[in-house]
Model the fold of this input.
Amino acid sequence: MLKIGVLISGGGTNLQAIIDACKSRDLQAQVAVVIANNPQAYGLERAENSDIPSLSLSKKNFDNKGDFFNQIQETLNHYQVDLVVLAGFLDILPKSFIKAFENKIINIHPSLIPKYSGKGYYGIKVHEGVIANNETYTGATVHFVDDQVDTGQIILQEAIKVMPEDTPETLQKRVLKIEHGLLIKAIGKYIHKEI
Ligand code: GRF
Done:
């Protein structure tokens, strides 16, 4: 069975969607470990509630970014992870890490890449950009991670209409809702080698 390592920084609703899909057997996979770069990440509790091993690492406890990511890499290897899912992980992976898990890292981004993606477009900033530019559509994208930010091969995208009454906050909520299903579909494609 495919072993997934999930990297998070926050609430972990995408992580929860993966956990639920594994439990219901919608995904023939298992979340082997959850790693957070922020000890406050609520996703850590989600892992604990489902008896999934989890670890929180703070960059400030490491001499440099390389050591920090080496620790993450070692942990993923320890749990024999086959696929790494970045589910709201707010850090840029170093090239050596990406190389070590080549074509085995996927990310979910809350926009229709290439729009509102790349450095600086994360969290609410993505949706602020969409509203500021009066976009008619926005959405979410699941893609492979390569050595640039948000540029890897796109696996799946889904669009939603931006409503006149939308604010960045309402849009963020509505996009997050479609992210969960999209991420599960994309992981399913990976499992069934349909990518
Ligand atoms: C999601 O919008 C995801 O696309 C982005 O960060 C957010 C994480 O949300 N990369 P959650 O922690 O999964 O609830």
Observations:
- The CA atoms of residues 110 and 140 lie 4 Å apart.
- The longest helix spans residues 168-191.
